[in-house]
Amino acid sequence: MKLTNNRYEVTFTAKGGEIESFTDLETGIQYMWQGHPDYWTGKNPGLFPLVGNTLDGTYEMDGKTYAMKNHGLVRYATLDCVCDDGKEVIMAFDSSAETKAQYPFDFHYEVGYALQDDTLTVTYRITNTGERDMPFTFGLHPGFNCPLCEGEAFEDYTMRFSNPEKLKQLVFDPEKKKPYTLEDVELQTIPCSYEEIEKYATLIYQGMKSSYLTLSGPNNHGVRISISGYPYLAIWTAKKNAPFICLEPWYGHADFSRVEEDFSHREGTMTLSAGKTFTTAYTIQVF
């Protein structure tokens, strides 16, 4: 499965319905992280119906205990291609007995891709195909190569919001023994710093007003993702010297300590009525 134009080629894989590569055919630059066991084998999973996980990996629903792996179900699934016509690629995944043993709801999940010039639009549609309300949350986890060009370093790159921001940063206890705190931060540019990310484990911000976040390096190559409408933005890399960075728009987040609310009322959880469809999208622009 692929989409191409006279400058760019984007390929896709059925595993997780993910982007496999985003290549500039003129320069040879590969923008997407390709996964590596020394750092992180993931690439750009969709996070449904969980972002992260509950504190102990289990939750209760209707008096029964369930468990899902980190970030839910879709990233581990093989999706069906329902459209690959050169203009759009669409993949889908439906609930099954296997998924309902982990998450007791009926759903239809679709991810669609469309390439125009230097911009890939990614659209997600999640439909509640059951007969009762469906609690869920959703997030994105795209990894980008950083640096992109020979002779550059990770620390040469910066991330910049399209507008100056006054944000809340979620700061959590690595041992998850106490609730997270919210710290006020004012910024527009964030340096790519292994030390800063390691200090917080993940940089997580709330309350963005900007439409875009741009990652760019000294040779004026980079990526710009749209973040409008997403309540949270996470920035993560695996460890020092990992040659990638993840820019992650989220609707919710993991448990950072013990949460008293039930699964349906965890922070960031949305409720989808029977027969209704939740739609969200974002764009990846490369340069």
UniProtKB/TrEMBL annotation:
GO terms for biological process: carbohydrate metabolic process. InterPro entries: Aldose_1/G6P_1-epimerase (IPR008183), Gal_mutarotase_sf_dom (IPR011013), GH-type_carb-bd (IPR014718), LacX (IPR037481). One of its GO terms (molecular function) is carbohydrate binding. It comes from the Bacteria. This is Aldose 1-epimerase.
